[in-house]
Amino acid sequence: MxxxxxxxxxxxxxxxxxxRTGLWLGELSHFTDVVEQAGHETTIAxxxxxxxxxxxxxxxxDVLADGGTAERYADRxxxxxxxxxxxxxxxxxxxxxxxxxxxxHGVMFDFDDESLAKLISDFDARGKIVSAVCHGPAGLxxxxxxxxxxxxxxxxxxGFSWPEEESAQRADxxxxxxxxxxxxxxxxxSKADDQFVEHVVTDKTLITGQNPQSAHGVARAVVDALA
Length: 227
Prior knowledge:
The chain has helices at residues 25-37, 61-64, 69-73, 76-79, 107-110, 114-125, 162-167, 178-184, 215-226, and strands spanning 3-8, 41-46, 86-87, 98-101, 129-133, 156-157, 188-189, 200-203, 206-209. The protein is an alpha/beta fold. Helix 1 (25-37) runs parallel beside helix 9. One of its GO terms (cellular component) is cytoplasm.
């Protein structure tokens, strides 16, 4: 059994618009379903600690119906895990075998956290698995290796694409283009030919998924890597 640290946002709204945001619930539930079924233990941490905001769009009926998320949303014990999370600044890479960064637009406003960047650098330096999905790779942008280079420099990654951002009608309110920022830090960014289809990229211990449809795939890749 491995121990996996899951990171979620503490940001519940956009900086320039009145939209509510937060964790995309399916990107958590799809991942935990796979890795916990495989026998691994998960701990959820958020940037600020405490209660985790949930993106209301991730609770829409058609979204909840996909991949078992509705069952998790109805599960009081499961949802209570989001009521009092530990803060990122209070956890250590020494205690876990892998880290997973969930998405939801909230991460674009608080995943630039210094404690998170250090945590990811520590996981990477120890050769442990670093994984992320959708907007989650925003948390990789500030992490550096001991030589000063970005952790993602020279590595294959993916993340929420700009065409998908435009389709989601959030292009005018997000603070940056995630795919461009990843590439600007030396990563080899790729995306699927079609929008909102599973696309998972593995580069040794770095595993990333493009969109919510990729959370199951990222989880399977993490389980394979842990094996």
